[in-house]
Design brief:
Protein name: D-alanyl-D-alanine carboxypeptidase
Shape: elongated
Number of helices: 8
CATH topology of one domain: Muramoyl-pentapeptide Carboxypeptidase, domain 2
Strand content: 5-15%
Helix content: 40-55%
EC number: 3.4.16.4
InterPro entries: DD-CPase-like, VanY-like_core_dom, VanY/YodJ_core_dom, Zn_M74/Hedgehog-like
Strand order of the largest sheet: 3-4-6-5
Number of strands: 6
Structural class: alpha+beta
Radius of gyration: 33 Å
Organism: Neomicrococcus lactis
GO molecular function, one term: serine-type D-Ala-D-Ala carboxypeptidase activity
């Protein structure tokens, strides 16, 4: 006798159709709420960032207005311009005085050196000719150039500083006669010639025109062209090691009466590696006094 096949009802669990639809609706609502919350959080964060940015802009604007009412005094370096004539940053009047204190040193008695790397340029010793322009300028950064030998050694100095943990950069280098003349004229027209003498060098009397002088500072701008650079680890490293690369701190803190310039720990002058070694050994501490030992 044949057996009839029995139908076995599927007993696997399943949700009723109306429950499945309800679940989809609930999930959709949950996603919508989450989207609204995320959008609200993003909007709030963006608004907060915008407010902070506006406050920063307002603060910088106020600082700029304050600077404009109180003219900055630029030292032999800080009141500088690039080849394009753009002014470099400058520090406060108390820290910079291109006119600076009067030098009691008789520069006319300095022994002139035949070595072009040892040319002495001061307020009372202009370049000859005054319109002098160095040859073979090499760029270290946009608008920042030095004579090739000085540029090569300055780059070596930067590399060594980086290895020692100090991220430094060139702040300003060669400045042309015309750029300096334009700067001095602007200051004279705005503040009068007497005050211009204190905040800017007359054309032909700036070391930067030689292509051998460079201002150095932190890559992040900290203490840029301020005396506090000399108190920072990077500034102290420069003071201790610059001579190894042929540079000297041209305006030392204890030689103001000789140089006629206030302390500028950022202003370096290239005189050559061998000359710099001899300079350190002489213990003179100023280019003027060192030249009289040769």
């Amino acid at each position: 006798m044949k057996r009839r096949a029995r139908y076995r009802k599927d007993t696997s669990p399943s949700l009723p159709l109306h429950l499945t639809q309800r679940g989809v609706i609930v999930i959709g609502i949950a996603l919508l709420v989450l989207s609204i919350l995320v959008t609200a959080a993003f909007t709030a964060a963006r608004s907060s960032a915008q407010t902070a940015l506006e406050q920063a802009i307002a603060k910088n604007s106020a600082a700029s207005q304050t600077t404009a009412t109180a003219p900055l005094t630029g030292a032999a370096s800080s009141s500088s311009t690039t080849d394009s004539g753009t002014e470099s940053p400058a520090a406060s009047a108390s820290e910079h005085a291109e006119g600076g204190p009067d030098s009691t040193f008789d520069a006319s008695q300095v022994h002139a050196s035949a070595d072009p790397l040892l040319v002495l340029v001061r307020k009372d010793l202009p370049l000859e000719p005054k319109e002098f322009k160095p040859q073979n300028l090499v760029s270290l950064a946009p608008g920042k150039t030095l004579v090739k030998e000085a540029a090569d050694h300055f780059q070596e100095l930067l590399n060594a500083a980086a290895q020692a943990g100090h991220s430094l950069r060139i702040e300003s280098g060669y400045r042309s006669y015309n750029a300096q003349a334009n700067l001095f004229t602007r200051y004279s027209n705005k503040y009068g010639a007497a005050y211009a003498e204190k905040i800017s060098a007359r054309p032909g009397t700036s070391e930067h025109q030689t292509g051998l002088a460079a201002d150095i500072g932190y890559s992040n701008g900290q203490c840029s062209l301020h005396r506090c650079f000399g108190e920072m680890p990077g500034g102290q490293w420069v003071a201790d090691h610059a001579a190894e690369f042929g540079f000297i701190v041209r305006y030392p803190q204890d030689k103001v009466a000789v140089t006629g310039y206030n302390f500028e720990p950022w202003h370096l002058r290239y005189i050559g590696v061998e000359n710099a070694r001899t300079y350190v050994e002489s213990g003179k501490g100023s280019l003027e006094e060192f030249l009289n030992t040769l």
